[in-house]
Amino acid sequence: MGKKEKIRRGYDELAETYAAKRSGSRREMVILDHFLDSLSEPTRILDAGCGQGTPVLRRLCERTTAVGLDFSREQLRLAAETVSPALLVQGDMTMLPFRDGVFEAVTAYRSVIHIPLTDHQTVLDEFARVLSPGGRVLLSESPMEFERTNTDWLDTDVKMTWSMAGAETTRKQLQNAGFRITAEWDAPEMGGEDDPKPPFFPARLDA
Ligand SMILES: C[S@@+](CC[C@H](N)C(=O)[O-])C[C@H]1O[C@@H](n2cnc3c(N)ncnc32)[C@H](O)[C@@H]1O
């Protein structure tokens, strides 16, 4: 079984536990609102790696026409119970099942960090492809490159892997994909005490 398939199955298996434990840090949601405030309306927005839908997709649904995409069927099943997006789609961020230029914005909270490092550029290229000219992206990353595996994540016996490209590589890859980074926000209260704090990159596609 490939790395990606293991992650997908892992998210299927721990869907209920992740849903129970996922709480939004206040700062994470302030960043999302700030990003949404900067968009012109009406906005069609893709939440890539939406998971079980709270708190991010839920907030998007309150303020935009939102489409949630995830490759885990169980995460999507839970999302369908709790949020009401325009559409929920099972698909892979490395090959988005959408036509070119159909969204005005893409968000990716805590999801690109599960993509194998060799595929990060592909994902950012896919985000650029499905955005209209001037389209916007907001994604969270890690400050530094590192890969990590936890064999008992959230005490579920499920093995989970993270592949973080780090801020420097992500900046370069966003630029390669045609984005101009407009700011860099952090959420200092996120993660454990010793965990590196994730930066959030808002960026704009050249019009
Ligand atoms: C840590 S969860 C984050 C979920 C949600 N964005 C949030 O903020 O709670 C990561 C999600 O990304 C999804 N994911 C990981 N790799 C993916 C891929 N290649 N394509 C689509 N979804 C993916 C997982 O299934 C999981 O639901």
How would you characterize this protein structure?
With 207 residues, the chain is α/β, with parallel strands linked by helices. It has a single domain (3-205), classed as Vaccinia Virus protein VP39 (Rossmann fold). Helices cover 33% and strands 28% of the residues. The protein contains seven helices and ten strands. Strands 1, 2, 3, 4, 5, 8, 9 and 10 form an eight-stranded mixed sheet that branches. A two-stranded antiparallel sheet has the order 6-7. α4 (56-63) links the parallel β1 (44-48) and β2. The model has no long low-confidence stretch (mean pLDDT 93). S-adenosylmethionine binds next to α1.
Quick take:
This protein has 207 residues and is of the alpha/beta class.
Can you tag this structure with a few keywords?
207 residues; alpha/beta; Rossmann fold; 8-stranded mixed beta sheet; two-stranded antiparallel ribbon; 7 helices; 33% helix; binds S-adenosylmethionine; Methyltransf_11; transferase
Q: Let me know the CATH homologous superfamily.
A: Vaccinia Virus protein VP39
Question: Any low-confidence stretches, pLDDT <50, length ≥5?
Answer: none
- Over all CA atoms, what is the radius of gyration? 16 Å
**What letter string, H or E per element, gives the SSE order?**
HHHEHEHEEHEEEHEEE
Please report the total strand number as a whole number. Answer: 10
Largest sheet: 8 strands, mixed
Termini separation: 40 Å
The CATH architecture category equals 3-Layer(aba) Sandwich
The quaternary organization reads as single chain
Structural class: alpha/beta
Helix content: 25-40%
Bound molecules: S-adenosylmethionine
Percent of sequence in beta strands: 25-35%
Task: Count up the helices.
Answer: 7
Count of the separate structural domains? 1
CATH third-level topology: Rossmann fold
CATH class: Alpha Beta
The outline comes out as globular
Overall pLDDT level? 93
GO molecular function: methyltransferase activity
InterPro entries: Methyltransf_11, SAM-dependent_MTases_sf
EC number: 2.1.1.-
Organism: Halocatena marina
